[in-house]
Design brief:
With about 525 residues, this protein is mostly beta strands. It is about 5% helix and about 50% strand. It has a 28-stranded parallel beta sheet that branches.
Length: about 525
């Protein structure tokens, strides 16, 4: 069966329905109106350079043909008609922004082959940007071209506060992102082209801890809805690459995100306090977390109480990041109803990574999380649930965040609910198969691990399974659980571990089959 994920005016995205992570069983041929257009071996594939308002017949080897009709559009503009040069030297910022400003609702702005050097661009509602193959939007290395946006604006007369920017969970000033949208809806960014933050050729990655103003994202969407990013390659952002913030109905489809392994904080996709985000068919290889689902630190979480809700991650491949898929640690508004399946993780530090800590607050609830049908290779520790995360916060070394004593439950205490991990094969692990460490005063409520297989790299070296205080290095450790109310272990195979395959401390109920 073929699922239709998206049909726009000039592109479309499809998904094969099977039980295989990311890749199909065999290579297949795609025909459009009887003509062969591509061969592929991934579960998600895309078509580009389609005609608006046209019916097509699609056929994939071994499947029944399906019909789809592209969206109508009002008009298309060529960015070069507005004076953009596209030679990689001329500053095309004003030309591109003018073209966007002039684009009528329902219109499309086309970037033909070329390299368009630009500063930040602001999008508006009801438009499509088509970045064609061999076209690149290239961020300027001149930091003065990236205006500083306040974290929030407070109206003293009305008492209303408006969030404008966010850096690692706090509403603080940041440089305007290369692609920027605020209070906008119905935007599509499509094509086989590239959006390059160009940070590798500037100073954005130098002395990052000394900066007092947040670095720009590649794409920042604040309080937007119905946004589709389809097909493009994003790379080399100054900081995070894709960052929807307090937005809803966001789709990232068949997108590639790249950054060097040693680039600082270049997360691929960090939806924050968003509702209904789909990340499907994507390829991420970056210098930090590949996907980090967030909902703000304590001020934002407590004030707005907006969880990251109804996210789906499917048929993606993640490589080399710190975590393949991370929840938190900026999750004071909570994370609920997350489904991850049919994905591949290669050589990330951790695979499925949940991180929180005392102080995130009573609204910091993570619950209803399902990870299934995952394949990992060379991941140091495949599963980590850490309620002792010690990075980034000023009080991370305080007694409050280091003591293993049971503290009173109060408004600062986070909660972790139900987690299910099933149908996973994790090869060439290094540090531990699974490391889950709850709080004594607020144990992780329920963990189920079912149909899991772990093997270890013969050259594995000791390392830390999670980021916490009073940490100890492990090597080829089995599954470790501490402070869990209910633990269910079914059909788990661990081959080549050192020490006990299962360590369960302070577990209220253990069901082992």
């Amino acid at each position: 069966m073929i699922n239709v994920l998206y049909v726009g005016s000039v592109s479309a995205c499809f998904e094969l329905e099977n039980n295989l992570p990311y890749y199909s069983e065999n290579e297949y041929t795609v025909t459009l109106d009887g003509a062969e257009v591509m061969k592929a071996n991934t579960n998600v594939f895309s078509l580009f350079s389609l005609k608006p308002g046209k019916e097509y017949t699609l056929c994939v080897s071994g499947n029944e043909p399906i019909k789809f009709t592209t969206k109508n559009e009002f008009i298309s503009y060529n960015v070069k008609d507005f004076g953009a040069v596209g030679d990689g030297v001329h500053d095309d910022t004003m030309n591109i922004q003018t073209a966007i400003n002039c684009l009528v609702p329902g219109g499309r702005l086309v970037f033909p082959e070329g390299v368009y050097s630009t500063g930040p661009l602001t999008l508006k509602s009801h438009i499509t940007l088509e970045i064609t193959e061999n076209a690149t939007i290239l961020g300027s290395t001149d930091e003065s071209k990236y205006p500083i946006i306040p974290g929030a604006i407070y109206d003293k007369e009305t008492g209303h506060e408006e969030l404008l920017a966010c850096v690692e969970g706090n509403a603080v000033p940041m440089h305007q992102s290369l692609i920027f949208a605020q209070y906008a809806e119905d935007i599509a960014i499509v094509g086989k082209g590239v959006i390059d933050g160009n940070a590798q050729n500037g100073q954005w990655w130098v002395n990052v801890k000394e900066r007092t103003i947040g670095r720009p994202n590649l794409l920042f969407m604040n309080q937007c809805s119905n946004i589709v990013v389809h097909g493009i390659t994003g790379q080399n952002a100054a900081m995070w690459q894709l960052h929807p913030f307090f937005s809803e109905n966001i789709k990232f489809l068949d997108v590639a995100i790249n950054a060097p392994k040693d680039s600082p904080n270049t997360d691929a996709c960090d939806p924050e306090a968003c509702d209904k985000v789909d990340i499907i068919g994507c390829r991420f290889s970056v210098g930090d977390d590949c996907i980090a689902i967030k909902s703000g630190k304590i001020d934002i979480g407590k004030k707005y109480k907006t969880p990251a809700n109804r996210h789906t991650i499917r048929n993606c491949i993640m490589q080399f990041g710190h975590g393949a898929i991370t929840l938190g640690s900026e999750m004071a508004g909570g994370v609920t109803n997350l489904t991850v399946n049919r994905c591949i993780f290669n050589h990330t530090d951790r695979g499925l990574r949940i991180k929180t800590r005392r102080g995130r607050g009573k609204d910091a609830v993570i619950d209803g999380v399902l990870f299934e049908n995952i394949k990992m290779d060379g991941v140091l520790t495949p599963i980590v649930i850490n309620m002792w995360y010690n990075c980034c916060d000023p009080d991370r070394f305080s007694e409050y965040n280091t003591t293993r004593e049971k503290l009173p439950v109060d408004d600062r205490t986070p909660y972790l609910g139900k987690f299910t991990f099933k149908d996973m094969v994790c090869e060439n692990c290094h540090v531990a198969a699974c490391y889950c460490d709850g709080l004594p005063e607020m144990p992780i409520d329920e963990i189920t691990v079912e149909n899991l297989k772990f093997t270890y790299d013969e050259n594995a070296e000791p390392n830390f399974p999670s980021m916490k205080n009073n940490n100890e290095k492990l090597c080829r450790a089995g599954m470790y659980f501490d402070n869990v109310n209910k633990l269910t272990v079914k059909n788990v195979e661990i081959i080549g571990n050192e020490g006990e395959p299962l360590i369960a401390k302070n577990v209220g109920s253990l069901i082992k089959e």
